[in-house]
Amino acid sequence: MINLSDIRLKLDRQSVLKGFDLDAESACVSLVVGPNGAGKSSSLKVACGLWRPSSGAVLVDGRDITDCPREYRKYVAYLPQSPSFHPRLTVAQVAEFYARIERCSPDEVEYALECFGMDACSGKRTGNLSGGFRQRLGLAVLSLSKAPVLLLDEPGLSLDPFWRERLQEWLREEAASGRTLIVATHLLAEWEGKADRCFLCDDGRIVGQLNPEYLRQAFPAPLDQRERKVAND
Ligand SMILES: Nc1ncnc2c1ncn2[C@@H]1O[C@H](COP(=O)(O)OP(=O)(O)OP(=O)(O)O)[C@@H](O)[C@H]1O
């Protein structure tokens, strides 16, 4: 499991995370939802060690890794929104590059590419891939990681319906194997009934949980909209 405890983060002198607390359990798919600018992506970037918080702690299975940059790669893998690769490298070359880092066998690489339907275009340069294919390559690369915690930022946005369903299936399989999965998303209708937990992020913190069975109706207006409504009433 991964715990983010009282994370505070400032970017350009603006407070972006303001005491962000999140406990995502092992063997679960946890969603982080919330309005634009709420801090979802920023929290994932802190959770994977890309951004260093001004205070707070990141713990994986009880181990505090906040001040151990090297530990992050071992425990946490992250797929950014719209992953990009060197445009002149082929799909196979990108997969092999990450496979070397992760010490994966050729069979594991083949399986990862097959899993996301990338085997048929393994000779294609990534600069010539469509957005959805590039996302699937990102997922294939993520699947090479052996980290116990996987963080995915809007992984389904550019995927067609078939691959969105495949992505959810894969995440469920990974959760069943004991991994901790956190998905930041706006695709509430598609996730309804498919996740174990759903955390609502607003204004730089987690402000509550939604019932993952009823996501469409439960999603409230962002805080500033709610404040405006109260002011108008
Ligand atoms: N690199 C950056 N430099 C400065 N401020 C940033 C940076 N990245 C994000 N922010 C600010 O941090 C706040 C939270 O942004 P973040 O991307 O985490 O929100 P989000 O919930 O993922 O939004 P969205 O749903 O629009 O993707 C916003 O106010 C944003 O302007």
TrEMBL record:
The protein, known as: ABC transporter ATP-binding protein
Entry keywords, A to Z: ATP-binding, Nucleotide-binding, Transport
Pfam (any one): ABC_tran
Listed InterPro entries: AAA+_ATPase, ABC_transporter-like_ATP-bd, ABC_Transporter_VariousFunc, P-loop_NTPase
SMART domains (UniProt xref): AAA
PROSITE patterns membership: ABC_TRANSPORTER_2 (PS50893)
PANTHER family for this protein: ABC TRANSPORTER ATP-BINDING PROTEIN ALBC-RELATED (PTHR42939)
